Amino acid sequence: MEGNKIVVALTGATGAMGGEVLAHLLDSENISEIRLLVRNPAKSRCFFKSLLKKGKDKITIVQGSLTRRDDIVQLVQGSDYVIHCAAVIPPKADHNPDNTIKVNYEGTKLIVDAIKESGRADEIKLVHISTVAVYGNRDYHHPWARMGDPVMSSAYDYYSAAKIKGERYVLESGLKNWVVLRQSAVYHKYFLTNNMNDGLMFHTCWNAPFEWVTDRDSGLMIKNLIDFDLEGKLNGFWLNDYNIGGGAACRETGYETFNAGFGLMGASAEAFFEPYWNIPRNFHGVWYTDSHVLDDWLHYRTESSADFWKYMAKQLWYYKLGAIVPKKLIRKLAIERLLKNSNAPMNWVRLGKKGRIDAFWGGQEAFDKLPKTWDKFPVLAKGQTPDGAIDYEDLKDEAKAGRYALDHGYDESKADSELGAADFAQAAEFRGGSLVTPASEIKKGELHTKLQWKCHCGHTFESTPFTVLKAGFWCPECCEALPWAFDKAAAHVPFYAQVWYDTHSKAEENNVYPYDEHEDDDLIY
Fold it and tell me: Which of 66, 88, 401, 425 could form a disulfide with 435 if both were Cys (CB 3.0 to 4.6 A apart)?
């Protein structure tokens, strides 16, 4: 950094969030150069042609891949900030898990290592974009989440599994200046197009809680992060993990999201879908009790879910023609054609894929019992659950969200500076294990020094207290995918059990996913 000549390295500029980050960074007077890691420059120039024109004096394209060390070294060298937005996301992540792991985990590892080897490791600041998917499945029993809740990837979610490993590598990196931002579900300009081309659209649970944020607010968030940091406003911000979310005006369920989208065609989701086409569990989505913390730092919330759909109605004005087209025709041509897609749940049922049927429904019998018509299907947004009526607005009341808070296994009323060996040992016990490092070697308030821990399976591993207590991780060997074995882990780990058994049967489920490596070949490749 020379004077105010700030160099920012950005990955993922051709993605929905990354593109908005680039657009907003171009408006920052503090930045002299923005380096973009781009795999195919010719193709990418078409993607953000107007931005390249606007930033012709600022933008430098580094042709390369997240999976090649030399390309990452070139990107990082001389940079002051590294904004890591790039990731293989669903549906692509579902179809090619090997590449998903290479990009989302190994690519993150290469970035961290390149910073360490740059000669400026204590100066470069890393902003790593993680995901809400690390929290796995939630329903009305515990719809609210916060930092420190269990990190639990849903079965067969290769995206979250790889992102979890990548996030952990950042947390444990020993770098002096990093921050992890767990991105919630993003409303972006390609939202409808992307969801109408793959069986992924059926992965959204009707009753799952979602706290959205728009792509434009996400871009503003990163611009403000850099500008505020340079203005000295972010003291105490770094070496932390935050949840990104749009707040109360962006909280809804999958059912409400579908209704808003198909409302552009003049009808609700019920006109186009049967309720059993979408999975009832094993996806991801939460409402955050602490997304305001990041907004307090970065002041990025400007748009609501309603604002996004107003924007989409203007952009996709021709969707209004759907109001005069028979709904059965739209359903047949746009929706039903995807039911046999390799990533569609109904295709797994049709082919008898036991592993996925067990993971997403709890077995064939559970699928068979699922209500097949809307008049019998409990919709949370209507105040209905399988257990009976519920006050949906009361459930969404953030002032009452403490009722649903998960136990983190230690006294969270203590300041970080007061946490010590006894607290760490208590947290380990709640996770079914123990703290191995002697108390005499532990300094109170030191959350970023690695300690030794032991899990319920007897694995000994190193992790910082921050990673365990504040970020929700545990044993990297048996408590992270792959494979997915949370049925077995929850039986020994109260930390997991308190949320896992909201949607899983302690008595009847004891699965490890996948059952064998060949079962899902046609889905992977």
Answer: 425
